[in-house]
Structures are given as C-alpha cells and as structure tokens.
Q: What sequence folds into this?
C-alpha cells in the first residue's frame, strides 16, 4: 500500500518511515508536517493509508482526517499519537485504528493489515457513519497496549463489575471503564436492561430458561453464556420476546 506519514516532528516521521520499512510490503510515498499539508499531499499522491499525528500546529490531525474521509476516494486513516485523550473523538472521524507512541512494529503491522483488508465500500461506509455523531458506532477499549474498536452491532451484552464493564461481543470479551446507566441512555433503542448489572442487545435475545437456582435467565444467540433476569425487568424481557416471535 502507498502510505503518507503526517507528523510535525521530523524525527517522528523518520522513525515511522523506518517502522513501515521494517514491516515490509508497503511504500512511503510522502510526508507532511501538519493537517493542511496532509490534505495537499493526499490530493497529489492518492495514498491508500495516512498515518496521522493529532496534535500539530495549524490544522490538527482530527480536522484533517475528518476532511480526508469525506473525499470521493478516501484513504484509510490511522492515528499515531503520544496522547490517548483524543481516542473517542478520533474514531468519530472514521479512523480505522489508533496507535499510541512509541509504536511497536507488530502493532503497526496489525493496523496496516486491518487497512489492507478494508475495501472501498467499507471505507465509504465508515465515512458515512461518522457523520452521525449522536450515537457512537463503536466501543473503544484498550487491548495489547493499544486501542481497539468494537462495532456496536457486534456487541451481545454489557455487564457491570465494580468500576469496569465487560463487553461481550463476536470477537470475545473486553473491559471498558464506563457506566451502565450511560450506556443504557445512549444505546437504549437497541439494548434492554435485564438486570441492574446487565444490558443485552435486543437482537441477541433468544429466550428464557430457569437457572440451577430456579431464577430466570436470558438465552442469547451465538453463546452458551446465560445472564440472570431480575424480577423487576422480567416483564419487559417477556414482552420483547413475544414481539420478536410474531
């Protein structure tokens, strides 16, 4: 793939170019030191991937990325930054990954592999989804020293455990620091509260059964895991199941 590197520090650009070379199979076609230069370079060079710093003078990486992904043939944007506090905002621009400095070669290879697997239709869909900022399209979690995106459509349920929330999804489970109440407020149209400690995706609800202690449990699609349904929330769960069976 053709890669454009954007960073306001020349040593950082040189190190990233060296990492790309170490990964192999890609070509660095240009560099830029701010967002405005990145837009100009992208128009000239038509890169497949832009490795973009966030904090830069003038036009920062977030603004530049939001413009890049709305072009007719958008590149895949991967943020590379020393700061994790912009992660959620970054992904609202349809970036496909977010790497924290110092970047490891294996982590860069993983991000570039993700970019290679995306076809044009998928990139266009990401850009279109980023326009709607009222509800997140992804959940952000830390994994293997980096940050990962979990599509909301892949989440089966959220379960609270002290200050952490377990996100059970098609790819496995991850922990996030969030509030179940806030998640319910944001995703209440597509998730239902079944217990004070659990939100379940409505599309994942398959049925009810009694647990070993006689209490009702939710049966979910594509997993053997069962979640307790509290007496308070049982009527609503039953109503949803009846509606889905019609």
A:
């Amino acid at each position: 793939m053709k890669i454009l590197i954007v960073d306001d520090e020349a040593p950082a650009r040189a190190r990233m170019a060296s990492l790309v070379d170490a990964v192999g199979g890609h070509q660095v076609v240009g560099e830029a030191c701010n967002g405005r230069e990145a837009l100009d370079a992208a128009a000239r060079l038509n890169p497949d991937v832009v490795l973009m710093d966030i904090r830069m003078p003038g036009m920062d990486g977030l603004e530049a990325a939001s413009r890049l992904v709305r072009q007719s043939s958008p590149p895949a944007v991967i943020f590379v930054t020393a700061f994790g506090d912009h992660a959620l905002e970054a992904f609202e621009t349809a970036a496909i990954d977010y790497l924290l400095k110092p970047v490891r070669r294996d982590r860069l290879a993983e991000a570039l592999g993700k970019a290679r697997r995306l076809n044009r239709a998928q990139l266009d869909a990401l850009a279109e989804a980023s326009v709607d900022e009222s509800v997140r399209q992804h959940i952000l979690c830390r994994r293997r020293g980096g940050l990962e995106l979990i599509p909301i459509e892949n989440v089966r349920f959220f379960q609270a455990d002290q200050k952490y929330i377990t996100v059970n999804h098609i790819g496995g489970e991850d922990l996030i620091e969030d509030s179940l109440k806030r998640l319910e407020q944001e995703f209440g149209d597509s998730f239902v509260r079944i217990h004070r400690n659990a939100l379940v995706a409505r599309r994942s609800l398959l049925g009810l059964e009694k647990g070993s202690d006689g209490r009702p449990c939710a049966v979910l699609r594509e997993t053997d895991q069962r979640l307790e349904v509290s007496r308070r929330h049982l009527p609503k769960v039953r109503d949803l199941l009846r509606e889905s069976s019609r």
The first strand starts at residue 2 and ends at 6.
